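Dear Dr. H.,

I hope your travels went smoothly. While you were away I took the liberty of generating a structure for the chain from your last submission, since the lab meeting agenda had it listed for discussion. I wanted you to have the full record in hand beforehand rather than looking at slides cold. The sequence, exactly as received, is reproduced here:
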Amino acid sequence: MIFNILIKEKMKKNIYILIILAATFLSCQKEFLKDKTDKALLVPKTLTDFENLLDNLNVFNITPSLPVIASDDYYTTGAKVNTYIGAYQKNSYIWAEDIDEGLSILDWNTPYQQIFYANIVLDGLLDIEPISSPQQEWNRIKGSALFHRAFAFYNIAQMYAKPYNKSTARSDLGIPIRLEGDVNIKSSRGTLQQTYDQIIKDLKEAEVLLPNSSNFQTRPNKIATQALLARVYLNMEDYDNALLYATAVLKFNSSLIDYNTLSKTSLAPFPVAPNNVNIETIFYSRMTTYTFGGATNATVDNSLYESYSADDLRKIIFFTGSNPSWFKGRYTGSIGTLFSGLARDEIYLIKAECEARAGKLQNAMDNLNILLKTRYNNTVNYITLTAVDSTDALNQILEERRKELVFRGLRWGDLRRLNKDNRYQITISHTLEGQIYTLLPNSNRYTFPIPKLETLLSGLEQNLR
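The corresponding predicted structure, in token form, is as follows:
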């Protein structure tokens, strides 16, 4: 499914917007939304139609990826970055004031496309009476639409809104929250608190509506919703609620991959998703495809690479090559695509971190060791990690979080969150063509600028850089 917003400026200030909607389902059975700016002219009408819309992997199950190249996990050279298509990749790497240079940005357009289609489904369900046997199906489809909408809102907020701070969230700018499928309704930026309130509202409603499991890892379910709530609450520094939901997820299923069973030499050591099952994956999604994320371009900072011990299988399963090494340990199972979904290793780390912060020292270290035992070479005796106090435990857990979740799209959010704590502030430096660029803790440049085309179109207030 393709969703393009084409903006044409004619004569002086006349702006014409053509919204082209072409719906091509994987089954090629349905065709909806043909070049109409008014969704009332032609829309899907049945539960099957709505399910087909939400199952389209060309629209859903995709998240932004530019924060990866902007983080401290990524390393590249001037010679390589200059080959990347689109100035926004290089500009993200050096945290330029102008990221998009007037170009269309997938990391903005894709999640708002998802929100648009989720709203089409939610609006359409209002016209279908949920009676007798279709009730369960109606609930599942509505819950899926709410999950997808919340996931999209959350991903946009990680780029285009400030880091969540409880003391300022009611005055900080949020993102445009669209809750209707009518494209003629003008959007505005509410507060950051309103943004997170809507994300949590959608997810809690979805949690009630969705079944515990799904036939496919691309479809949301109750456990995926709880996993996303754990991620959201962690990001908000609401560690009590993050622990609550992480615990619920692992109570349902605590399975992990034993990395000893994986190929140490394969360039794609994990099952190819979404057609094959990865037992750790709770919900599958991938990142938008940019040049920097492809195969040998996804190079890692050397200090991070060296932080893996010789017995840590992640060092050879995640990386290959040298000077610099590049990342191959993708839960997508494809060397050209980065995973950005929800997986149980992340949930173990959320649970351990929240327990450490709550002073539950033994529980925190137990959960960390459960995870790490599946990551270390089993021909060598695993040395159980211990901690002298909660701070020591937290330090170890955060170090392992970075090593485990590398190139998952989570490091940017962690930097934004942890930089608010003086103990974990990091200054990042990227060198390009002999010039050193620096990103200071809590800099305004941790918030991406709203794309220029969007501010021109809607008059949205721009982020400070």
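Two observations you may find useful: The CA atoms of residues 67 and 110 lie 15 Å apart. The chain has one domain: 2-458.

With kind regards,
E. W.
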